[in-house]
């Protein structure tokens, strides 16, 4: 089915039943047009979509009849429509027959739970187009809740901005609406108001005090980010696999930072499942990284045999990415993935803090975690002196990189909890960057050596020789930068 997509940017207002709509004096406005909008809204029984400001409805009786899915966006909301002609306005459609094009976008958000009707809305609308600014809607809404059959009636105004609106005309429209007695709406959407889920007044956000509160506040947005990255991966969007993998690693790092204060069994189970998801993403991500590296070399290097080898390998790795991506999507379709989302939800709702640490402050816990992470980094650096060959040294540098990443991450958490910022944060980031490129070069060098052993073409063999030499030189260059980068971290740490 065809999906119609557009960005909806609107402002919502509460209006009294007796309020008079703006006259639009001084602005070019069309005559109002009346219509009746009928819609059934769907969600899970525990309203998971509404909690994420996602709405799914079936609309009937006018030009935009069919399924409508609205998803939060950076500015406004993305609305996706799958239209259906001749829909029965009195029928409640079966959500199990939701078009695949929309259902796939909801799988992570619902964690596989069934959709049920939650509210039926009938809206009497008068719509006025305001030239250069947008469309004003005067809505009288009657909402019936499916759970208990109760009905609520209210009046609200909306102003949906047109594409590329004139900012001055939008400002004037807002002044006219507020001047007519309206006020900014208390609810994010009609269905939120119908179900009694208003947005509430905005409150200044304070750093949570306890470990449990900090985890709940920090894990919630990360769970949201993981779900938001689910569909881009399925849709083959550039860098989406990488971003989802980064989120799984960030979640594991958060659990590791607070491990001394958390019950071991549930924390290990969740960490193991996050590790599984990261591994399922690894094949596609590794192929993507190799393809991008080879494409860059093919575009920038002058030697013809090297360019030819890089182009051939880039094509191979793009094909490898496509195959690995199919395996990744199968993992996202699995019940194990849905169980992981459920486990993460349970962790957000009630972080399993040890009984003895329920009153432990997040700042104190993170200060301890920062100290432990720094100790592990300096011990890994000291262990490099024991390396007996280049292979051991490369493994040691990789260990230092992991420890630097751990210190950087807990430092960011500590700063969020009110401890910091730290003078060593930027030097640690630079150290991580140096060793990250070193590890990339080492891994690709070894991969190229293995690929060379399987290659029969002499021309490609020569190109592979040059590619291997290039990665070897890149690794050595980054290794040579390591002492200065590590020294900068040591000095910054000593200075506090």
TrEMBL record:
The record, for Gene3D superfamilies, names:
CHAD domain, Hypothetical Protein Pfu-838710-001
Q: Which residues form a coiled coil?
A: none
Domain CHAD span(s) in chain numbering? 204-496
Q: Which InterPro entries match?
A: CHAD_dom, CHAD_dom_sf, CYTH-like_dom_sf, CYTH_domain
The family database entries (SUPFAM superfamilies) matched by this protein are listed as: CYTH-like phosphatases
> What name appears for this protein in its UniProt entry?
CHAD domain-containing protein
Say which species the protein is native to: Segniliparus rugosus (strain ATCC BAA-974 / DSM 45345 / CCUG 50838 / CIP 108380 / JCM 13579 / CDC 945)
């Amino acid at each position: 089915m065809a999906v119609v997509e557009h960005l909806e940017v609107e402002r919502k207002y509460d209006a009294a039943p007796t309020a008079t709509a703006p006259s639009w004096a001084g602005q070019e406005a069309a005559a109002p047009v009346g219509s009746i909008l009928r819609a059934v809204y769907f969600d899970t029984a525990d309203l998971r979509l509404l909690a994420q400001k996602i709405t799914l409805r079936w609309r009937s009786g006018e030009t935009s009849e069919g399924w409508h899915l609205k998803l939060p966006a950076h500015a406004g909301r993305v609305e996706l429509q799958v239209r259906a002609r001749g829909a029965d306005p009195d029928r409640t459609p079966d959500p199990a027959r939701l078009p695949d094009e929309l259902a796939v976008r909801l799988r992570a958000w619902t964690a596989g739970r069934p959709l049920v009707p939650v509210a039926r809305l009938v809206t009497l609308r008068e719509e006025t187009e305001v030239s250069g600014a947008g469309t004003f809607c005067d809505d009288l809404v009657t909402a019936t809740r499916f759970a208990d059959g109760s009905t609520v009636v209210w009046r609200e105004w909306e102003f949906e901005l047109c594409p590329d609106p004139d900012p001055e005309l939008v400002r004037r429209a807002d002044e006219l609406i507020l001047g007519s007695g309206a006020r900014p709406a208390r609810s994010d959407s009609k269905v939120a108001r119908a179900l009694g889920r208003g947005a509430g007044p905005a409150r200044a956000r304070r750093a949570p005090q306890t470990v449990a509160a900090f985890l709940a506040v920090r894990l919630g947005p990360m769970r949201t980010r993981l779900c938001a990255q689910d569909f881009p991966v399925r849709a083959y969007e550039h860098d989406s696999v990488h971003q989802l993998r980064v989120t799984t690693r960030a979640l594991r790092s958060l659990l590791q930072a607070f491990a001394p204060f958390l019950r071991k069994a549930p924390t290990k189970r969740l960490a193991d499942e996050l590790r599984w998801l990261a591994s399922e993403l690894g094949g596609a991500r590794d192929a993507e990284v190799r393809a991008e590296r080879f494409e860059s070399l093919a575009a920038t290097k002058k030697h013809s045999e090297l360019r030819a080898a890089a182009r051939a390998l880039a094509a191979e790795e793009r094909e490898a990415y496509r195959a690995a991506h199919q395996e990744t999507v199968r993992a996202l379709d699995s019940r194990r993935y849905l169980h992981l989302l459920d486990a993460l939800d349970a962790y957000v709702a009630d972080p399993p803090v040890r009984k003895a640490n329920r009153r432990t402050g997040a700042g104190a816990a993170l200060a301890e975690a920062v100290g432990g992470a720094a100790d592990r980094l300096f011990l890994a650096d000291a262990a490099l002196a024991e390396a007996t060959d280049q292979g051991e040294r490369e493994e040691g540098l990789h260990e230092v990189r992991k420890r630097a990443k751990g210190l950087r991450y807990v430092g960011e958490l500590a700063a969020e909890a009110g401890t910091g910022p730290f003078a060593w944060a930027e030097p640690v980031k630079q150290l991580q960057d140096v060793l990250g490129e070193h590890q990339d070069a080492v891994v690709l060098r070894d991969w190229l050596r293995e690929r060379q052993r399987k290659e029969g073409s002499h021309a490609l063999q020569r190109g592979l020789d040059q590619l291997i030499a290039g990665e070897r030189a890149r690794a050595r260059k980054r290794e040579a930068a390591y002492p200065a980068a590590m020294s900068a971290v040591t000095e910054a740490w000593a200075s506090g």
